[in-house]
Amino acid sequence: MSADTAEATRPVRLMTLPGVYAPQHDTRLLVAALDREGIHPGAEVLDLGTGSGALALHAAQLGARVTAVDIAWRSVMTARLNALLRHHRITVQRSDLLSALPGRSYDLVVCNPPYVPSPVGPPSGHSAARAWDAGLDGRAVLDRVCATAPAALRPGGRLLMVHSGLCDSAVTVRRLEDAGLRAHVSDRAHVPLGPVLRSRLRWLRRTGLMGDADTTEELVVIRAEQP
User: What is the CATH architecture assignment of 21-225?
Assistant: First the structure.
């Protein structure tokens, strides 16, 4: 990747309120994946679980008409403020995945869901950990996206979703294929362990989710397409 390309795929620095997920390695992977999709002006894009709004704003910069949703009001307000500061027009609303968007369909759905395995199960509704923790196997939200996102894709529509390799990418691909999509892992990257994984490394190794020699986390981007 050239320096110019790397700069183009790097998310801009955004404001994040406390408890709102800030753009990280997984965000950058999805930004690069978005750039390869050839989004045309006027394409309709949905950002599920928008957080800071980084992916929604990047899609808008590419010319898409963007809807962004998040279950957390603090994330909704953060994304709206970042859109205002960056002079991009996106629609941001509170929604538990697709619950507030009945019957809507899109050319592309992008999602960076909570996916970190947690020894205490899913967090409470008011915990900041809700932005990353996703149950014992990390799939509490992933499986819901696999079950609901296909209905939001138009014919030829695409889903781009990132998650940790700890959550078993083969399961994600299989569940999307069971829902009628053509799915595969389009990107893989190994990144340093962040503070959350480091804090529960002993538990991850004890449960077999990580090996004793593992010092990095694998991230994967799943690309799925509606026939």
Answer: 3-Layer(aba) Sandwich (3.40)
